[in-house]
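so my prof wants the structure for this chain in the tokens format not the other one, which i didnt know existed until like an hour ago. anyway here's the sequence
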Amino acid sequence: NGVESAVRGTEKPRVLDDMPDKTKTWELAEVTDPVKCRVVTMPENTDPPVK
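here's what i got, hopefully its the right format
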């Protein structure tokens, strides 16, 4: 597909120097407001992804 190859050609390749430091520690916060919570269900599709 000509459109896909054109889009891929404009993407900037990832460079490890541009990536943020992976040693950053995560901060956990207690969620006390139920409005800030949401449930996400993932599909249980076992078929291989279509490329």
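also thought this was worth mentioning. The mean pLDDT is 68.
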